[in-house]
Amino acid sequence: MTIFWAIFWLLFVFCGPIIYGISMYIRQSFKHRERMQERRNEELRLQIQLEQMRNTHAGRPNVPSQSDVLPKDASWEEQIQAPYEMGYQQMNQQQ
């Protein structure tokens, strides 16, 4: 019976701090990730604010720059040609 209590006390004395240390490490890890995410969010917010200030100080509205990709509109000739080619392809498939 005394061996049982000796093992119990050893586990209690040594496992308590080990479990506490692991839980503290996990908490600190989560806090660190949260702080890093807050810093990243603040950096992005400041970048957006700086871009808006640049646009307003330049006297122009918020328009896309030349480096932004814009969708290509079909020209007038392409709009007319597309249905003609589709009809021609359908006729060739039916023959």
Query: What is the CA–CA distance across the termini?
Result: 97 Å
Radius of gyration: 34 Å
Mean pLDDT: 78
Dominant shape: elongated
Structure description:
The protein is mainly alpha-helical and 95 residues long. The protein has a domain at 1-44. The protein contains two helices and no strands. It has helices at residues 2-57, 76-94. The model has no long low-confidence stretch (mean pLDDT 78).
Top keywords for this entry?
single chain; 95 residues; mainly alpha; 2 helices; 79% helix; 0% strand; elongated
Question: How do the helices and strands line up, and which of them pair or pack?
Answer:
Blueprint: H1 2-57, H2 76-94
Brief digest:
This protein is mainly α and 95 residues long. It has helices at 2-57, 76-94.
